[in-house]
Amino acid sequence: MAVGTSSNGDMTAHASSALQRNLAQFALFLLMILALVESFLVPEAKNFQNPQLARIFFWHFPCPIIASVLLIMSSVWSLLYLVKGKPGLDVQAVTSLELGALFSSLTMIHGMIFSRAEWGAWWQWDPRQNSFLLVLLIIAGYFVLRSAFSDPTARKTYSSAYSVFSILPILFLIFVFPRLPQIAGQSLHPTNTIMSGQVNGSYGYTIMITLTLLSLLTVWLYRYRLKAGLFELRVHEYLFEL
Amino acid sequence: MKFEFFLADIFDNWKVIAAIPPIAIWVLLFAYLRRVDSRVAKAEALLKEELDRRKSEA
Questions:
Q1: Minimal CA separation from B21 to chain A, in Å
Q2: What does the pLDDT read at residue A159?
Q3: In sequence order, which residues have a C-beta less than 8 Å from that of residue A101 and are 6 or more positions away?
Q4: B45 touches chain A (CB under 8 A)
């Protein structure tokens, strides 16, 4: 990728950047395979309806955590953009939200596979599934709003304001609503599994591996997307100055 | 063996189903990476086009 290279084309930087990306991609791919093998070596969780498929949890669990962090980050960057007005801050906000949307979608996909394997249906109308669907719709609203404005300043300002205000319902739907006593009682989805010490031993260890691995992957993707976004911004600013 | 039986055999295997989540992660993140690359390529093409136009005007 040529992000970060000068406009007259620094071929050496381009080649080293592409090599670096391919190496990182390959290393992460290998680590993912190792983590997958590790997850298969863990003994089966006997208290699950389908003990072998409880392994989906290893990949399902890190996704909403990473998504929540990214969504909070997006809101903070958006607030900073509204205060300072620097376009780079909007690039940070949209980068966080894009990756947040990606990990939220993965949460939903893994959750549906887990639901089918353990509870017998892809969609259970479980309060946790419903609340997370609402989170996805709120995130989709950000991108719809962003694409509705052709003027870049209006696009950045309105989408930043949306991001700042939407974090409250998002946090409520992810962390508060599923834990309300009357909701938690109806849900098949367990709550506070980690905090109450239900996941330990080899399960706890494998979850730490997948969480670390996916966090590293997110940091790398974030930096990559940010570089691309800032390059795009510089090109547009340069063309505008012309 | 008919294709649908072959598929049913594969998806009866719990190891295949348990491998779907990490594969889904990889596929989605890889698709995202491609999208970022195409945005950069588009910006580069725009820049090149503008520079060429200015060069031909000069």
A1: 6
A2: 95
A3: A136, A139, A140, A143
A4: no
Query: In chain A, at which residue ranges do the beta strands (DSSP E only) sit?
Result: none
**A154: its two tokens:** 């209006």
Report how far residue A113's alpha carbon sits from residue A193's, in angstroms, rounded to the nearest whole number. Answer: 19
Q: Find the residue in B nearest to A217 (Cα).
A: B29
Which run of H or E residues covers position A46?
none
Average pLDDT over residues A74-94: 94
- B55 in contact with chain A, both atoms CB, cutoff 8 A: no
Residue-wise pLDDT for B14-29, tens only, equals 777 878 888 888 888 8
Q: Which of B18, B22, B43 sits opposite A53 (nearest CB)?
A: B18
Amino acid making up residue A17: S
User: What is the predicted pLDDT for the residue at A10?
Assistant: 47
A163-184 pLDDT, tens digit each: 999 999 999 999 888 888 887 7
CB contact A105 to B (< 8 Å): yes
Note whether B14 contacts A: Cβ–Cβ < 8 A.
Answer: yes
Kindly report the pTM of this predicted structure: 0.83
Please state, in angstroms and rounded to a whole number, the distance separating the CA atoms of residues A140 and A137.
5
